[in-house]
Write a structure and sequence with these properties.
Alpha-Beta Plaits; globular
């Protein structure tokens, strides 16, 4: 299993126009085979900071996601939305435990 966690930043004034673009990308990502979880969340204390959490079955599923058309469209929208300061960390998980 592969977990990706991180963040992006954009001007807080751009959030209203960014939300539908982000929602389309999330919906398409969640529909991919091998995508187990996919979410973006606005930080309540830092306007314009978006937290990212993704879980994929394996590296191959994540690579297919990265090369998908909806991800190309998403990346193409970044300049107009002012998206920058992207930081993502990949974690390879061998086991999970519910608590």
């Amino acid at each position: 299993m592969l977990v990706l966690a991180g963040s992006i930043r954009l001007p807080a004034d751009n959030l209203p126009q960014a939300r539908p673009v982000i929602a389309r990308m999330i919906e398409a990502s969640r529909a991919e085979p091998g995508c187990l979880a996919y979410s973006f969340a606005e930080d309540l204390l830092e306007p314009g900071l978006i937290r990212i959490f993704e879980v994929f079955r394996d590296h191959e599923a994540q690579q297919a996601h990265a090369q998908s058309q909806h991800m190309k469209d998403w990346r193409a929208a970044w300049p107009a939305l002012g998206i920058g300061d992207r930081q993502i960390t990949h974690y390879e998980v061998s086991a999970t435990h519910e608590s």
